[in-house]
Amino acid sequence: MNILNNGRFGMAAALAGTMRGVIHKAIEHATARTQFGKKLESFGAIQEKIARMAMKHYVTESMAYMISANMDQGSKEFQIEAAISKIYGSEAAWFCCDEAIQILGGMGYMRECGLERVMRDLRIFRIFEGTNDILRLFIALTGIQYAGSSMKELQKAMKNPVGNAGILFDFAGKRAKRAVGMSSGPSLTEHVHSSLATSADQTSKSIYEFGATVEDILMKHGKKIVDEQFVLNRLAESAIEIYAMVSVLSRASRSLTAGHSSAQHEALMCTTYCDEAFHKVKICLEETQSGRNLKIYSNLSQISQDVIQCGGLMQQHPLGF
Fold it and tell me: If DSSP codes are grouped into helix, strand and coil, which group holds residue 72?
């Protein structure tokens, strides 16, 4: 397991370098190529691609260094973080290379450019060292296992409510606060640079809502949660985004505190990423329990079973073939 953990966190570091290279190629072309009388870099569609590539690189690199710092400080439990960095890094690198090719157009598809080989080579990273699909389940189920330990204490307390009133009142108090919109989650604001307070608050709320959702899902499904992969995938996606938020907050705060020349640029990437991630986490968590989404999951399962039973696509060809 330690070998896999080391390989996974190292992958994020290596892919950050790959992403840096493909981003450079994209920028090189966007600043040189003229279309409709303007440089490509001046078009909003291209600006969004480059900005998202830069943010994904920043997140990937921040994750790699955060895990490294934890390891240097003697941490032995970093398997979830390593898995998250492997998933995020491999998918971010694929995104960046794909977008770089898109920016270069037909030229990006040519062998002489070099990006076509990078894209082909990148495809394996979502498979080896544990496929991203399996690692998502690993992240969700490992996190649930920790939450399950707390739930077991609550179950024991409920068998003897008189002798364990403290645990029961604490649990009831948390749920009451949630019912009226009050958070009892951790606050990260005091640990980050003051200019990142809003992003820190968003991250704290995401962490709290994640914990509350896991608690509700455990109460609903119990041990059968291992079979609810539609739900687990969305929990994993939320965990990945939350860790990404924490990573960029830590790095941007350090740059602002140290007065680095890139500090304001890093802060802008951090706040932009956290704002989008906050809403993405909210949607993912809602999708784990909403009746509409649970119906969609059931439909998807049925569609898959129909296609498998048929041995291929069921619908007739429009021309009757």
Answer: helix
Q: Three-class SS of residue 39?
A: strand
Q: What are the pLDDT digits (tens) for 283-319?
A: 999 999 999 999 999 999 999 999 999 999 999 999 9
Q: Three-state SS string across 140-192, please?
A: HHHHHHHHHHHHHHHHHHHHCCCCCHHHHHHHHHHHHHHHCCCCCCCCCHHHC
What are the residue numbers of the active site? 129
List pLDDT tens digits, range 7-20.
Answer: 676 899 999 999 99
Q: Please give the helix or strand (H or E) that residue 94 lies within, else none.
A: helix 79-104
Reported as half-sphere exposure (CB side, CA atoms, 13 A), residue 152 has a value of: 7
How is the chain split among helix, strand and coil, in percent rounded to 5?
80, 0, 15
- pTM for this structure? 0.88
Q: HEC states along 207-272?
A: HHHHHHHHHHHHHHHHHHHHHCHHHHHHHHHHHHHHHHHHHHHHHHHHHHHHCCCCHHHHHHHHHH
Tens digits of per-residue pLDDT, 253-284? 999 999 999 999 999 999 999 999 999 999 99
Q: Residue 26: name the closest of 98, 94, 93 by CA.
A: 98
38 pairs with which residues across the strands?
Answer: 35
Angle between the N-to-C axes of helices 79-104 and 132-159, in degrees from 0 to 180, rounded to the nearest 10: 140
- Name which of 27, 16, 19 is nearest 103 in CA terms: 27
